[in-house]
Protein 1
Amino acid sequence: MEKRVSDKRLIEVFARVGSAYATAEEVGISRNAVRERLIRLGIPRKKMTDRSVPPDCHPDRENFSVGMCKRCYMREYQRIYYTTDKSRDNYYRTKYGISYQDYLNMQMRQNNRCAICGKLSPTKRLAADHDREIQREYGVTVVRGLLCTQCNQSVIGGVEYSDEVMRNAIKYMQKIIRLRKKYKEKAIG
Ligand SMILES: [Zn+2]
Ligand SMILES: [Zn+2]
């Protein structure tokens, strides 16, 4: 497993040594990991380029940024920044008022399992289940938890659920009741 290095330390080392290669050497993590992290941290590419060192990917080309040629860098940037985190972040913020990181934290707390039936969702993303009543009454979007498609679409149609699954459903619904009570009290008080 790779060493854990904080963002702060990565930026500090990078600012001092001036290239992704030297940063990788010093902090003891791979060049690829350093690149991914620096791109993700939004370090201006001009600042992270040591043009005297040829890029790893295509040594015959110019080092455009973090040890990659222009083409490879742009592809990586698109892949890491736009096609994943940024667009997802936009989606969750617009639709549910949470960041993508909030979603991931929630997913981690639920061990990547549906909050009702407990099924793992290896291929499909768990749906963010929000409270429509709170939204309607108080104009706030509150994500109650993450659910599989089936539970998300048929929470009340629970005839197929085992006792254990229904107990989970009760716990979940009690949480909804507490959540609504909290907002009701807030609205009154
Ligand atoms: Zn390249
Ligand atoms: Zn489920």
Protein 2
Amino acid sequence: MPSLRQTLKAILPEALHPAITGAYEIIGDIALLTLPDALLPYQALIGATLLTIDTRLRVVAHRLPISGEFRIGGLEIIAGEPPLATIHKENGLRFRVDVERVYFSARLAAERLRLAQLCQQGEQTLVVGSGVAPLPLTLAAHGAAATVVGVEKNADAHALAVENCRLNRGHGHKVTPVNADFHALTPADLGLFDRVVIAMPETALTALSHCLQFVSLGGFLHLYIFQDENRPLPARDMDTILAAAGCQALSIAAVRCGHCGRARYRYRLDCRLG
Ligand SMILES: C[S@@+](CC[C@H](N)C(=O)[O-])C[C@H]1O[C@@H](n2cnc3c(N)ncnc32)[C@H](O)[C@@H]1O
């Protein structure tokens, strides 16, 4: 398959070549790309070109920045036919996704698998900000977790999570999707967990103080955060929040697990509570 970048270089004016990145994300049969302003007058041509060279695709959409509590970005179809809903396959699982209504990133597939490999036999796990349940289902299918509870506030994402548990027979029965704002929940509602994952990088440190109460003694906590390359990781902030809640960390480690903009990275902070 010829690359989008090379194909566009052959058809767009030379002055625009520095603006061509050729990068796009595939979710099911949908391609999402972010076009710089200079390329917007050519968006229909770029979309049609991508549909021609990548025959897995049905529709191409230009992505506007992600925003808001539910982390959804505006989308504009530039080639092909709606809907912007599809079935996405990853790690042997199938997820129904509506990219206009829910957050979903295909780029996190390898990280979901890496986290699943950390789970130990028979664990009770909680995922806070679980979306359409890609992480709960990956932990259930590829990890040793006995049960996974996924808490998600976006009702559309929750409805798809319930459907995805049905779609993935053999694993879905281990997952319980809960449609709620995590702030409204306590251990009296959900119980305690051997492992808690906070999958909301924009607000992870503020969510931490509330979510600590769900981790059992000796349990594990994983926190996804975004951080600029030249800034120190907030391990000390995490320590301070833990101390304020009367908790102690036996260990805190940071793992870089993704790139999310110029010199900005996604990290996973792994912590064991003592
Ligand atoms: C970055 S997305 C991650 C979704 C999912 N873990 C995934 O990887 O596809 C963060 C999720 O947290 C959800 N969320 C935001 N605030 C929440 C809250 N207060 N309670 C529960 N979920 C929340 C959003 O709707 C969104 O689906």
